[in-house]
Amino acid sequence: MIHDKALQIAVIGGDLRQAHLANKLAQDGFAVSALCLEKDVYLGDEVQLGENAKKVIGTSDVIILPLPVTTDKVTVNAPFSEHKISVREVLSSAKKGALILGGMIDIDMQTKGEQLGLTLIDYLEREELAVLNAVPTSEGAVAIAMRERSSTIFGSTCMITGYGRISKVLARMLLAMGARVIVAARKHSDLAWAKINGCVAIPISKIKDYTSQVDILFNTVPAMILDEEILSSLSHDCLVIDLASKPGGVDFEMAKNLQIKTIWALSLPGKVAPISAGEMIKDTVLNILAERGITIGPN
Amino acid sequence: MIHDKALQIAVIGGDLRQAHLANKLAQDGFAVSALCLEKDVYLGDEVQLGENAKKVIGTSDVIILPLPVTTDKVTVNAPFSEHKISVREVLSSAKKGALILGGMIDIDMQTKGEQLGLTLIDYLEREELAVLNAVPTSEGAVAIAMRERSSTIFGSTCMITGYGRISKVLARMLLAMGARVIVAARKHSDLAWAKINGCVAIPISKIKDYTSQVDILFNTVPAMILDEEILSSLSHDCLVIDLASKPGGVDFEMAKNLQIKTIWALSLPGKVAPISAGEMIKDTVLNILAERGITIGPN
Amino acid sequence: MIHDKALQIAVIGGDLRQAHLANKLAQDGFAVSALCLEKDVYLGDEVQLGENAKKVIGTSDVIILPLPVTTDKVTVNAPFSEHKISVREVLSSAKKGALILGGMIDIDMQTKGEQLGLTLIDYLEREELAVLNAVPTSEGAVAIAMRERSSTIFGSTCMITGYGRISKVLARMLLAMGARVIVAARKHSDLAWAKINGCVAIPISKIKDYTSQVDILFNTVPAMILDEEILSSLSHDCLVIDLASKPGGVDFEMAKNLQIKTIWALSLPGKVAPISAGEMIKDTVLNILAERGITIGPN
Amino acid sequence: MIHDKALQIAVIGGDLRQAHLANKLAQDGFAVSALCLEKDVYLGDEVQLGENAKKVIGTSDVIILPLPVTTDKVTVNAPFSEHKISVREVLSSAKKGALILGGMIDIDMQTKGEQLGLTLIDYLEREELAVLNAVPTSEGAVAIAMRERSSTIFGSTCMITGYGRISKVLARMLLAMGARVIVAARKHSDLAWAKINGCVAIPISKIKDYTSQVDILFNTVPAMILDEEILSSLSHDCLVIDLASKPGGVDFEMAKNLQIKTIWALSLPGKVAPISAGEMIKDTVLNILAERGITIGPN
């Protein structure tokens, strides 16, 4: 294990999460420079504000790009900056052997980077980050449910489709708040877990037998599960919150026709808890570094 | 026990809570008339819309006034109505022996009513309603904390002053969401309970030893506890949520000077969960009626 | 607050709890002597073994007697000793102004002590000790249920009568293990709490409507609640655990006739967790001393 | 889906679990015959006692063998019977196309059965049964900890090695009882889950930094983790409970030398909760049947 205070890290672009990540890495003792993060974000004194982007990038051992790396396939995603820097420029300015970390690195970028002798790692594909992200996602979902309804979570009947990471954390939270939680899932082992964890566990094929009792329906399955048949069976004041990434799992058009209030809540971690989300990315980055023998401090 | 379907109940004024109460009592089989509740609220078909207020009041066995009964000491509090009816009129129109229920009945009204041969009961003084109200209050407090901060409740350090009804429910909720909860209370037995329930329990005199670690401080004690000394010891991004009724427990002026974000959250149940709050009032009203031998249905 | 390392404490008689108490007080920095505790118990090096009982008692500022102080109304309860010392002798040997602490001090002893210029305090009457004792009692009750049955607590239906200290802790434990918990209580506010805490809450008058579903019935009410009528309504393999102090709340004779397995579990803390029980008495003793201005160490 | 009341099921040998399974399947409406289960077990009236083993086996559509199927590789494991029947005999008497279910079917039996045109399924390899078994295992582990120690689980520090099925359930139970739980695991994602679920999560390589604080150490990893170095670092009154199947994860010889109390708790479900364990096998059997289109009743 290398204890390497001289390790140079560049943090480029991104939002509050990325700024918090920069601050935290600097507090941990790394030499951190920030680029494209100069507007409306708080950066601590320990973080160097990079003046010369090319030089900063060229001298960094590790370059951390935001989540997502880019929204236009050309420039680094940098909503808190007036500067623009292209992904291509970052790659070509990086020194050979540098480690490039980012969220949602596409295949083109991956190929290009490797041709230049760089190592690219998509931290969003790390299982531990996906697990940790379930926490702000669940809190955000609960906050939406609280905001949109005139009743307490306590005493409500919630249904959750799927029993993956988000469902597990969300179910636990709702149960602890006094809701009755029905989990609809396919696999027998998932249903066994849901039952052990205090939920009513039903096969996904039986959803319709339970929908009339449901006050809040959280979907986590990215497939069209909540179709006309299911939506029509809901009570008129049921709230539907779709947490599944695109294409989602709700027939939104149909829900609108049926006057079922439906909210498609995407990318909650960055929206409801950017500080915590930044902290989680930082922990994941540290894990990636530690696996490569790079570590700081006594832990 | 009297099973009395013919019992006449008048529900007068109030907000969504009172409307929900009317609906629920009617669904339970009581004969319910509503007065001063005609605007922007949903009343079910089972509820009679009282046309002639005097007649409705004069023929009712039980009259349910809102919470609070009045905000101007003269008229019944009726934000969802264009009609006005005075408290005095209600009392003088009621038939002898009628039961008048309301929230926050003052001493004048009590005396006046009793002189007229009426029985007046303040449902807000019922212990079970105070207990039940702790649920929407706690959910509302958590919702505020989620909305105002950029971090998750999970992983945060929360301090709660006092260990009464609200604190107990709130602490349980925060713990279940993964917060560390410090309870500051006076009585040894309260501290013993807080410890058993999973909190860090500290005497109220030691608050200052812990404040620097606190991310969210919930006050439930209606006395000036959070004074300059305590407020100055908080970290700059600590959020203070005061749940104590007037005069509150925070030196708000000082908090403002110190740039400590402070929210005084009063009357949360009616704001965040009027349906549930109405349900709770209904349960309490049913308890009051049952104690007087009036009951409906198989339970 | 007096920081008084020279304070002399005598710990007399008792069982493992009392021995643990002596050890802990000595570790906290008090000068502790033990009497009538020489057999089969572990006393640390910091505890003085009193040779001359009269001298030890006569020079002590605080004298801690066991729980209960006596079982025969004459001698101090000392199962781990071959020596006998009478309560009367302890009182008459104590120096004027000494503080005598004990569990279950009777009125005669209280009077006699006060006549001799002593201050007697029954620590068992301290609310915080009663609260803390609910933990080992509940764990002991769960352990009995596990040992006596061939099914898991998970998935079982438990009924608890009463909703005092033990019930609150026990209910929480059972719920967390996945049981369905029915609480039968009298007061509306207790029922409100039970409901908030995740239990099915029923008035005590309705017990019989639920008994046929019950797998384990825990009684905490010290009055004959489980009479022939209730016992006859239980399923034949229901387990009854009576946690109420004498006279208990079960018609044991009738239960035997009906072949209902019934266990009267008394004084669980000292039996199932003497170390923890001793720790709790110690904490309570420290609270008593602190209220009198006697304290040791930084807390 | 076939609703087939005429389906013939033979339940052969085994212990209380198998007897409970027979009763439950009969209550569900299947035609159930029991063999080798005539001593000291309760079989309901709905279960046929097979007189002629050969005939019962030859006419059954489904044959359920115990867990484990055999302990001597020759006869069916039947501790509650004076009859002996060989596994070979069962297979050769079964009718072609019959479904044979059993726990721990070895490769020889599998091959032999298939040659005879039978379908053999080992229900112990079903993920849902493994998940459900974690509940009685965890309750049994907690019961051992309660029985062997003089302190409460509340307030104790527990360490669990590994974060698989048993650990997840056990950790939740201990946390709910008020223990501090340290989980030592290898994978970053397991550590993330442990942290989310309220545990202190540490890499397995850091165990030794925490062992001195541990009161109860539960091992779930079937590899020699608790070697001399770790065992020597434990406090002298730490209790070690090994829940890992053979070869276990503790150097028992060394633990004995170091006078560390160590309990190797194997096969807890059948021991501590045979009724529940039988219920779980039944649920799994029903899943297996349902997947083959065989079902009974409205669910």
From TrEMBL, chains A, B, C, D:
Pfam families recorded: 2-Hacid_dh_C, DpaA_N
D-isomer specific 2-hydroxyacid dehydrogenase NAD-binding domain boundaries: 147-224
Record SUPFAM superfamilies: NAD(P)-binding Rossmann-fold domains
Domain of life per record: Bacteria
Domain Dipicolinate synthase subunit A N-terminal residues, every copy: 8-123
Molecular function via GO: NAD binding
InterPro entries linked to this entry: D-isomer_DH_NAD-bd, DpaA_N, NAD(P)-bd_dom_sf
Protein name: Dipicolinate synthase subunit A
Biological source species: Hydrogenoanaerobacterium saccharovorans
